[in-house]
């Protein structure tokens, strides 16, 4: 199985905080062996609940890697949690500011250093009424194209049944089933080497999120919508 990637004190602190949170649900992990045991990888996931980061962090950690999450910069200011996030290698995303490019630069550096970077390209919990992925921001495509690393789509479902961030309902009992599935690395060879335009970034972003959506459809055993949900407000898509 290989040795566990070393994480240090703050990764241990994160593990101590996050593992108990995952006990709220019955967990099923499929495809964890597809996560490289060494070297960089970009893990692209859907987002349906505030419980997603703890669940996904434990999933990656159980596969002997240390996850580096891209997260809103405001989360780094939360007492205790923000210190754990920063200390464990979290990557702040500065949206709507001149620092947006810096957030991607930090993610580039993490990938170049051989880390596993976890990204939620939707940028927030899905606002789709039925929980399918929304139209994503294109920062994920830039990371995928500018770094020659495995890009793995993954989907998780069930955390939203425990904690729904929009209805504010917390329903730990009876215990819900949380399922996580990782797909095969996405072949981006047809896109690499081309001039990076907005059109190319959008095409690659939609390709990656389609893979994520298909995995979610597999978990839910439902037919996914043909198009991604688009909230009414127009948003900047330069960040993740």
TrEMBL record:
Q: Where is the signal peptide?
A: none
Q: Name one GO biological process term.
A: phosphatidic acid biosynthetic process
Q: Which UniProt keywords apply?
A: Acyltransferase, Transferase
Matches recorded under Pfam families: Acyltransferase
* Domain Phospholipid/glycerol acyltransferase positions: 41-159
Q: Name one GO cellular component term.
A: plasma membrane
**GO molecular function annotations of the record:** 1-acylglycerol-3-phosphate O-acyltransferase activity
Q: Quick check: keyword Transferase in the entry?
A: yes
Q: Which PANTHER family match?
A: 1-ACYL-SN-GLYCEROL-3-PHOSPHATE ACYLTRANSFERASE, POSSIBLE ACYLTRANSFERASE
In Swiss-Prot or TrEMBL terms, this protein is called 1-acyl-sn-glycerol-3-phosphate acyltransferases
What is the organism of origin for this protein?
Answer: Actinokineospora alba
